[in-house]
């Protein structure tokens, strides 16, 4: 199921579905109208592959990717461009901008961080006139990938070890919640949601998807046989929830919430 770094993040497992994961980033950035920003920050940049697309779009900007995971940043280092695209290890909850940030992006990272209203209000305040704030958050805590794992974590067999590692359905706001926070920060705001139908192939594709993300913090609590037992039970439940179709593919619906704010002149 992939090794993972000491912090539990595994760039190899995450990148297995690179196409499916990069599409929402492109959809998000498609609504950002910045022409020639000087400073761009990507909060929760992961392995840096999507951060590198920011550098390609705005080659004159100083682009910084921030992430707390040493293993993700080790993978990101290969994208670095001295003086133009750099990566810094920090917790986004503690991050404070050194100056104005013309484009502030966070893609598929905020769901790991609590208290979005306070955090986003602070980030919105860092956006100057003509600046942009763009976030994308998976909104699938009610989907079987998450609900089945939460039920397993809270089941009598595992609750003592895993109850507080269960995916939290309150981690992500409603689309209207993000609209309120960004407009409250004085930004002209565009919010939408999309459910992507990912067509996956191979054995246990939903499990392999989850292994790069929601299953990661759960397995990090367990060693050897326990991790194998939880993985086997979760895999069986996922096979029922996401059955293989006659053509051999498996469809994984995945809902994501997008919010783009712009501070108009
Ligand atoms: C699912 S990956 C997304 C990476 C990248 N943004 C992308 O779209 O491919 C989530 C990233 O958020 C980072 N992350 C989670 N909580 C964080 C925190 N509190 N501070 C900084 N990074 C965090 C993880 O280390 C991980 O690299």
Structural class: alpha/beta
- Please tell me what the overall shape is: globular
CATH class: Alpha Beta
Strand line-up of the largest beta sheet: 3-2-1-4-5-7-6
Question: Which small compounds were modeled alongside the protein?
Answer: S-adenosylmethionine
- Domain unit count: 1
Give the mean pLDDT: 92
Short overview:
This protein is α/β, with parallel strands linked by helices and 265 residues long. The protein contains eleven helices and seven strands.
Describe the structure.
The protein is α/β, with parallel strands linked by helices and 265 residues long. It is globular. α5 packs parallel to α8. Helices cover 37% and strands 20% of the residues. The model has no long low-confidence stretch (mean pLDDT 92). The chain is built from 11 helices and 7 strands. The structure holds S-adenosylmethionine (SAM). S-adenosylmethionine (SAM) binds at residues 9, 21, 25, 44-46, 50, 67-69, 72, 91-93, 107-109, 112-113, 213. Residues 9, 21, 25, 44-46, 50, 67-69, 72, 91-93, 107-109, 112-113, 213 line the site of S-adenosylmethionine (SAM).
Any key phrases for this structure?
single chain, 265 residues, alpha/beta, Rossmann fold, seven-stranded mixed sheet, 11 helices, globular, binds S-adenosylmethionine
In terms of topology, how is this protein built?
Elements: H1 11-15, H2 18-29, E1 39-43, H3 49-57, E2 62-67, H4 70-76, E3 85-89, E4 103-107, H5 116-125, E5 132-138, H6 144-154, H7 159-162, H8 175-184, E6 188-200, H9 205-211, H10 216-219, H11 224-241, E7 250-262
Parallel strand pairs: 1-2, 1-4, 2-3, 4-5
Antiparallel strand pairs: 5-7, 6-7
The structure holds S-adenosylmethionine.
